[in-house]
Structure to design on (606 residues):
């Protein structure tokens, strides 16, 4: 916004990060745009790849804001604004931050009634001003809830769209069908094939204005495209429910790790850890193996503990990156970002600490760009009822136990909707539109060839070690396709994206 | 692709219209639907592209918007962009933009 009367301007982005706004300084100007491509089109904006940005991408598998993959160009953090006048521009400042304020005084029936009403209001508001509305339906609690509310508020059968995979353990279509039947939907399905992936990956990688390694972009695109082909103009997506109400599987695991932190530190450090860590790395007895692994994963504090499973740490950074590249980056930067994001919530409950981290690093940096960009590529608008400001504020008043009760995920959400959602959806394990990356890389040669071709350029760039790439595509992929397949995917998307931008 | 773009400060050599066009053309993604012509206020070039962006001028305030913004004031909610423009203008001009004021 530019206000001619006051000579002041304002750049602002929504609270959660549904939309993006990038900016950079030139000599005498602050340039801004909603995509990096638009921004880089300004004649005075310098385009230089950031090694740190590339390193961070390979750590997070998406570009973690506020930095981008270009030096000096930044993404305005969610809930932030920049004000400028004739002489200066302010630094980004928050106009809104997530503030958890658990309210232990409210009675459950009143809370549930308010929650259900807010859900209905949120869906109704976003459905009201679009001529043709549909909903993503994975068969999970969020998409099923949005679907049901869409039917309830419009009084018409919701138009729903689902993606399946013909791979055991990855196909959730049956749950989507259960929800579709339950809510009387006009339901549409599509099974994504490995051939679809080969077709779409070059276009998807090039669509993004910086590397994007979340493989679920592929099924999201095909689902949005199917909706577009059926005349839908706006899709409603359930994203955000996990990060507001405590639905991600890792929350339960971290709860178990958190129990270890309740043991007095003197006992942990003085007795348990010396004893357990003195065990061989791979003790012969299974219980001892589990004990050692548990202590290894549980002993780091938050938020370091949250990255226990990071692929780069597992693979060893010096094994992955070229030495010269590694010497030029701050290897601690990704963790510093996490610590920065976690710091305001360090005294919150464990579940709220994790939700705060995920709102930024999972939702704003990953899932929202995934859905918004793939819908844009398919030609449909998208809106997120779960991220309605009233629902966000409501979620912040829930107590820790109402989100995570022991290892039971999103306790309140499910309890409140126990008579609304079908039982099979309420009890299913979370999965979503997760692509069977490893299985298809290992079993579909054209996809493996595409990945191999895509990283050819990376071999010459001095970012990753060619020896590591060889090992990844041979022994590692055979050893554990789904685990190491993710790293191949992330590198493939980087390689294609760099080629698409001729960088 | 729907988007907004612009700058505040010195115009680049070659002029603002050429720079705005160059920015627009730098995005390899085609505009979604009919694209409104970029409009630039006199001081701070501000433009929008794509069918899902909106650009309005209210009482000397120029806004480019992408998304589904709501103006929230107490118990009042509105998707009216003119109300949003006026409110943002008042807030920004007075330095009174506060937490919770932008939906």
């Amino acid at each position: 916004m530019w206000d001619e009367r006051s000579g002041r301007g304002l750049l602002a982005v929504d609270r959660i990060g549904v939309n993006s706004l990038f900016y950079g300084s030139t000599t005498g100007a602050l340039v801004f745009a909603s995509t990096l491509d638009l921004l880089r089109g300004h004649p005075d904006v310098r385009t230089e790849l950031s090694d740190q940005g590339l390193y961070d991408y390979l750590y997070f598998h998406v570009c973690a804001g506020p930095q981008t993959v270009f030096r000096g160009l930044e993404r305005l953090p969610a809930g932030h604004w920049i004000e400028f006048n004739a002489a200066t521009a302010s630094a980004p400042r928050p106009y809104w931050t997530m503030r958890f304020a658990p309210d232990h005084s409210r009675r459950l029936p009143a809370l549930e009634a308010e929650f259900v009403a807010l859900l209905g209001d949120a869906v109704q508001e976003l459905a009201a001003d679009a001529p043709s509305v549909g909903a993503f339906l994975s068969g999970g609690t969020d998409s099923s809830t949005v679907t049901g509310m869409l039917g309830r508020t419009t009084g018409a059968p919701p138009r729903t769209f689902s993606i399946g995979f013909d791979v055991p353990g990855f196909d959730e279509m049956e749950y989507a069908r259960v929800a579709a039947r339950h809510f009387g939907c006009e339901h549409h399905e599509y099974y994504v094939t490995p051939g679809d992936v080969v077709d779409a990956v070059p276009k998807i990688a090039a669509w993004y204005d910086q590397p994007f390694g979340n493989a679920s972009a592929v099924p999201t695109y095909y689902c949005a495209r199917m909706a577009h082909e059926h005349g839908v103009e706006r899709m409603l997506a359930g994203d955000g429910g996990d990060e507001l109400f405590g639905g991600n599987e890792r929350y339960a695991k971290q709860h178990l790790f958190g129990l270890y932190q309740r043991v007095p530190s003197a006992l942990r450090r003085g007795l348990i850890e010396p004893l357990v860590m003195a065990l061989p790395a791979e003790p012969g007895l299974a219980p001892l193996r589990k004990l050692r692994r548990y202590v290894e994963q549980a002993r780091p504090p938050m938020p370091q503990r949250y990255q226990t499973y990071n692929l780069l740490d597992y693979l060893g950074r010096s094994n992955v990156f070229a030495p010269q590249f590694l010497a030029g980056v701050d290897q601690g930067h990704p963790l510093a970002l996490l610590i920065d994001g976690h710091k305001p919530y360090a005294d919150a409950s464990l579940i709220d600490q994790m939700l705060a981290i995920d709102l930024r690093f999972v939702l704003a940096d990953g899932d929202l760009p995934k859905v918004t960009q793939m819908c844009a590529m398919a030609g449909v608008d998208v809106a997120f009822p779960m991220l309605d400001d009233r629902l966000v504020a409501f979620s912040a008043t829930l107590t820790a136990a109402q989100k995570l009760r022991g290892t039971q995920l999103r306790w309140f959400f499910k309890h409140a909707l126990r008579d609304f959602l079908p039982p099979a959806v309420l009890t299913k394990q979370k999965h979503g539109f997760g692509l069977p990356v490893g299985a298809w890389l290992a079993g579909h040669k054209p996809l493996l060839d595409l990945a191999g071709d895509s990283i050819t350029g990376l071999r010459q760039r001095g970012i990753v070690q060619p020896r590591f790439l060889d090992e990844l595509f041979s022994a590692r992929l055979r050893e554990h396709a789904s685990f190491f397949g993710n790293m191949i995917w992330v590198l493939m998307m980087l390689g294609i994206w760099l080629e698409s931008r001729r960088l | 692709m729907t988007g907004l773009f612009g700058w505040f400060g010195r115009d680049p050599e070659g002029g603002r219209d050429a720079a705005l066009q160059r920015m627009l053309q730098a995005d390899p993604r085609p505009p979604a639907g009919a694209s409104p012509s970029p409009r630039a206020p006199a001081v701070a070039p501000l433009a929008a592209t794509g069918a899902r962006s909106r650009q309005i001028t209210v009482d000397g305030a120029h806004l480019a918007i992408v998304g589904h913004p709501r103006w929230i004031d107490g118990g009042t909610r509105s998707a009216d962009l003119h109300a949003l423009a006026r409110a943002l203008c008042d807030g920004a001009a007075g330095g009174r933009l506060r937490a919770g004021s932008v939906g």
Notes: The CA atoms of residues 2 and 9 of chain A lie 4 Å apart. Residues 350-378 of chain A form the longest helix (29 residues). The longest strand of chain A covers residues 159-165. The two ends of chain A are 33 Å apart (CA to CA).
